[in-house]
Amino acid sequence: MADARVIVYSQPFCGYCSAAKRLLTEKGAEFSEIDVMFEAGRRDEMIERSGGRRTVPQIFIDGRHIGGYDDLSALDRSGELDRLLGSPAP
Questions:
Q1: Measured between alpha carbons, how far is 43 from 78 in angstroms, rounded to an integer?
Q2: 25 in helix, strand or coil?
Q3: Domain range for 63
Q4: Each residue of 32-72: pLDDT tens digit?
Q5: Into how many domains does the chain fold?
Q6: Using an 8 Å Cβ cutoff, are 6 and 61 in contact?
Q7: Measured in whole angstroms, how far is the alpha carbon of residue 7 from the centre of its chain?
Q8: DSSP symbol at 89
Q9: Which one of 10, 15, 27, 73 has the fewest CB atoms closer than 10 angstroms to its CB?
């Protein structure tokens, strides 16, 4: 089980958000999800934390901005995601 603190800013009906959450779940990562559509002010928080990115998902692992699904997927392909999550590589 992963030890990292993971936050996913997302919104409903977002295919990339679903894919990111699915990948994190497959890795055994627990994550907090922040719905920027229904939680007032959280979109502004996401934009500020991500350095101006406005698209979802925006993913953070232990406070480090990872980016969106494509960035998360690239980290997984390189093996870096397992290290960030504190999981042994398969």
A1: 29
A2: helix
A3: 6-85
A4: 999 999 998 999 999 999 999 999 999 999 999 999 999 99
A5: 1
A6: yes
A7: 6
A8: P
A9: 15
